[in-house]
């Protein structure tokens, strides 16, 4: 098969590699599309070294069609359309024993810790596969994983009908949090990002989304003004490496300041710098800070909503390129970061 092998950091080669053997208890999937993630953009230049020794095949957001079913596998047949859940938890640690899988300290991901889906085929055990409706466009199947992150964040935060939300970051993660939230509440959603084009994508596709550019107005003031001074039920941080903006606190502290009494902050950004919070501001509200990591079985929830047409995957797709042009695709995203949300690679 052909695969996109990261031969050295910053250097993909599209080349022939052995097609994975379909071992007993595994399913061979013919990948149709895979999506480039922010994490891939860090793996590419070697930021994840030594976790990702090269050469290897990245790619953890992928969908495809079952090509072959190994011995002892039931419930799948050739032709089934499937999303691949890349998460491998250990099953033995205290977190796994309590079925709190995203908290597994030994958690591994296909395409990060092992070869992944930037290839024509992948062979995985059936518990990592989730069937979609046959009518779902192949492009959309590759977005199930990132949607899982958005749904998991909302489930961690307990978003429910009537809730008013604020989301810091209108990038890939912020957009899927917003889309997932819209399946749960019709309430106001404030979206905070200095990138106007990214705010616009959400506003063009959804009602009752209030864009806030923190370079133009103080986001906490704007949120208070639009909520009769009360603040929001839940504030999500989906920024990570935050751009410093004069006169505005870091996103996590802004989230805390935007809450109503008893509200919840849900932090997802994986920045390396501390994000100072004045705890008095949270304690006065008896607020909560929670975190959200990857997803935990939300693939089923996502696929239900995609099958039913409740999500807007096309709003996320900025560009589709052939798998063979992966090097060019990564360079494009690297050089014009803000222009692209999801770039899909076509492995058909
Ligand atoms: N917890 C998880 O499960 C999980 C999963 C995937 C990614 N992440 C992390 O989430 C973060 C976001 O990922 P992404 O792929 O959406 O990145 P992204 O670059 O697409 O989006 C980040 C956005 O934040 C905006 N931004 C920068 N500074 C800001 C500020 N001061 N205020 C408001 N907005 C600001 C940027 O303009 C950009 O649009 C990253 O740190 C990533 O590693 C977490
Ligand atoms: Zn990802
Ligand atoms: Zn574990």
UniProtKB/TrEMBL annotation:
PANTHER family: L-THREONINE 3-DEHYDROGENASE
Claim: Oxidoreductase is one of the keywords in the record: yes
Residue span(s) of domain Enoyl reductase (ER): 7-345
SMART domains, alphabetized: PKS_ER
Keyword annotations: Metal-binding, Oxidoreductase, Zinc
Cofactor(s) the protein requires to work: Zn(2+)
Protein name in the entry: Enoyl reductase (ER) domain-containing protein
Domain of life assignment: Bacteria
InterPro entries: ADH-like_C (IPR013149), ADH-like_N (IPR013154), ADH_Zn_CS (IPR002328), ER (IPR020843), GroES-like_sf (IPR011032), NAD(P)-bd_dom_sf (IPR036291), Zn_alcohol_dh (IPR050129)
GO molecular function annotation: oxidoreductase activity, acting on the CH-OH group of donors, NAD or NADP as acceptor; zinc ion binding
Similarity field: Belongs to the zinc-containing alcohol dehydrogenase family.
One Pfam family of this chain: ADH_N
């Amino acid at each position: 098969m052909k695969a996109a092998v990261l031969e050295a950091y910053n250097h993909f080669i599209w080349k022939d590699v052995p097609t994975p053997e379909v071992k007993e208890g595994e399913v061979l999937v013919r990948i149709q599309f895979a999506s480039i993630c922010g994490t891939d953009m860090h793996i590419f230049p070697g930021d994840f070294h030594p976790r990702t020794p090269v050469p290897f095949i990245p790619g953890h957001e992928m969908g495809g069609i079952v090509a072959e079913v190994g011995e002892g596998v039931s419930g799948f047949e050739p032709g089934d359309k499937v999303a691949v859940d890349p998460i491998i938890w250990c099953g033995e640690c205290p977190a796994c024993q309590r079925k709190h899988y995203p908290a597994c300290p030994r958690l591994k991901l296909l395409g990060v810790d092992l070869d992944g889906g930037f290839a024509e085929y992948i062979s995985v055990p059936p518990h990592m596969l989730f069937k979609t409706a046959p009518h779902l466009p192949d492009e959309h199947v590759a977005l199930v994983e990132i949607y899982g992150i958005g749904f998991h964040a909302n489930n961690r935060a307990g978003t429910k009908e009537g809730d008013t939300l604020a989301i810091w970051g209108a990038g890939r993660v912020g957009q899927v949090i917003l889309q997932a939230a819209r399946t749960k509440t019709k309430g106001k959603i404030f979206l905070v990002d200095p990138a106007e084009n990214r705010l616009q994508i959400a506003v063009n596709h959804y009602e009752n989304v209030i864009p806030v550019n923190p370079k133009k107005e103080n986001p906490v003031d704007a949120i208070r003004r639009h909520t009769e001074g009360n603040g929001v039920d839940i504030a999500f941080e989906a920024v990570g490496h935050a751009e410093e903006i004069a006169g505005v606190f870091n996103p996590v502290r802004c989230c805390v300041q935007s809450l109503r009494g008893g509200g919840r902050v849900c932090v997802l950004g994986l920045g390396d710098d501390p994000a100072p919070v004045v705890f008095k501001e949270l304690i006065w509200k008896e607020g909560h800070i929670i975190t959200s990591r990857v997803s935990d079985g939300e693939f089923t929830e996502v696929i239900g909503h995609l099958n039913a047409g409740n999500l807007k995957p096309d709003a996320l797709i900025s560009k589709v390129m052939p798998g063979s042009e992966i090097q060019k695709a990564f360079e494009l995203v690297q050089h014009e970061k803000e222009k692209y949300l999801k770039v899909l690679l076509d492995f058909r």
